[in-house]
Design a protein that fits this description.
about 325 residues, alpha/beta, twelve-stranded mixed sheet, 9 helices, 12 strands, about 25% helix, globular, binds S-adenosylmethionine, binds iron/sulfur cluster
Length: about 325
């Protein structure tokens, strides 16, 4: 269905858990998530009912996210049931990749058609630093496992952070020569609780164009990334610039958090609870959240924090 500004809303991002096996500094607090009561979170049946209600309202694409979706015990069942919902044409999943070596094949069999894998650096020590606890080797094995399982058009998501990985732009972009994957540089978003990143960390996506003058611009697909190609590469380069040039005018998505809150906008604290509702109740709230979707979020910068008032692991990115 269309929102009140005429945007067709066809994409739901479903966060299945707030938990994660990593602790990325820009995304979640070091001490993890506060323990929530089990009955405050959506059950598997409620998640599927919400996907069914959303599909009746015109949602066609579902992305499963988190937290880390692969730490969720019943993730395969959620994927399998979501992929079978009438009207859902594709189920994609965003992951840090570290659990893919044992799960990639099963995810594919469960109906996940596309994977986005997050990777911010190619340096082992920097990987452990930014994730606070992760192992770079496990992430790389995860990328390899995704290819072995037969996933195509894999996207590698890199959060561009000045003073951390802006010196690796060329090396990260060259992954598109090694793998048939797209590498997408995402501008760091200033969430309420990642204030350790000062002004210098907010590097605009155009830094990628400066580091790689040989990039050839491509026509955009229907996503939020501006697309480019490195000569001789198998995949493309994408620039996602929510800070320097937001894409609200063409936003086609809503979000559902693991604790059952519909979020019409990533950077707003507007939330609509569907926890405990029946099918018709959920459908009504989804409709309301689409109609109440704001035209645009407020400006973002080191000094202008997101209005979401949740850390990213509690939204789903
Ligand atoms: N755990 C999974 C992962 O890391 O891919 C899925 C959840 S994570 C919240 C989804 C995406 O949000 C990741 O690509 C992550 O890098 C990105 N992200 C988290 N915090 C961010 C921030 N402050 N600015 C930009 N991207 C962020
Ligand atoms: Fe976990 Fe993903 Fe957030 Fe990193 S970005 S802490 S992997 S949810």
């Amino acid at each position: 269905m269309k929102d009140s500004f005429g945007r067709e809303i066809t994409y739901l991002r479903l966060s299945v858990t707030e938990r994660c096996n990593l602790r990325c500094r820009y995304c979640m607090p070091e001490d993890g998530v506060c323990k929530k009561l089990h009955d405050e979170m959506l059950t598997e049946d409620e998640m599927i009912m919400a996907v069914e209600a959303a599909a009746e309202l015109g949602i066609k694409k579902l992305r499963i996210t988190g937290g880390e979706p692969l730490v969720k015990k019943n993730i395969l069942s959620i994927c399998r049931r979501a992929a079978a919902v009438e009207g859902i044409r594709e189920v994609c999943l965003t992951t840090n990749g570290t659990l893919l070596p044992t799960m990639a094949k099963e995810l594919r069999e469960a109906g996940v058609s596309r994977l986005n894998i997050s990777l911010d650096t190619l340096d082992e020590d920097k990987y452990t630093h930014i994730t606070r606890c992760g192992n770079f080797g496990n992430a790389m094995k995860g990328i390899e496992a995704a290819f072995e399982a037969g996933f195509e058009r894999i996207k590698i998501n890199t959060v561009l952070i000045g003073g951390f990985n802006d010196d690796e732009i060329i090396a990260l972009a060259e992954l598109t020569k090694k793998y048939p994957a797209d590498v997408r540089f995402i501008e760091l978003m200033p969430m309420t609780d990642n204030e350790e990143f000062g002004q210098a960390a907010y590097v605009p996506g155009t830094a990628v164009l400066e580091a790689l003058p040989q990039l050839r611009e491509l026509p955009n697909d229907d996503g939020v990334a501006k697309l480019y190609h490195l000569p001789g590469a198998k995949g493309n380069i994408g620039l996602i610039s929510p800070v320097s040039s937001h894409f609200c005018g063409s936003c086609n998505r809503i979000r559902l958090t693991a604790d059952g809150k519909l979020k019409p906008c990533l950077h707003s604290d507007q939330e609509y609870s569907i926890k405990g509702l029946d099918f018709e109740g959920m459908k009504k709230e989804i409709e309301r959240s689409i109609m109440d979707k704001p035209s645009c979020h407020a400006p973002l910068s080191a000094a202008e924090r997101s209005g979401a008032h949740r850390s990213m692991n509690r939204i789903g990115g």
